[in-house]
Design brief:
Elements: E1 3-8, H1 10-13, E2 22-25, H2 29-37, E3 43-48, H3 50-56, E4 67-70
Parallel strand pairs: 1-2, 1-3, 3-4
Length: 73
């Protein structure tokens, strides 16, 4: 069974940990890209804040495994 990872600013994503998701706080664009690059093959769902999604841009469609969702603003 895969895991869920949430990437974005700490304030917006901290509650996801209560639901069992792995949270990767990323305040700066470089941190968002590093968190994205560090995802392994066990992650089946990646949830992003809108800002994290903007930083990643076209890279969102390059992920070959699992689903990617963006939290509505």
């Amino acid at each position: 069974m895969g895991t869920v990872t949430v990437i974005g600013d700490a304030t917006a994503i901290q509650g996801w940990a209560l639901a069992g998701a792995a949270v990767r706080a990323a305040e700066e664009p470089a941190a968002v890209r590093d968190a994205w690059a560090g995802l392994d093959d066990t992650v089946d769902l990646v949830i992003l804040t809108p800002e994290a999604a903007r930083v990643l841009g076209p890279a969102l469609v390059e992920r070959k495994r699992g689903l990617v969702a963006v939290i509505p603003p």
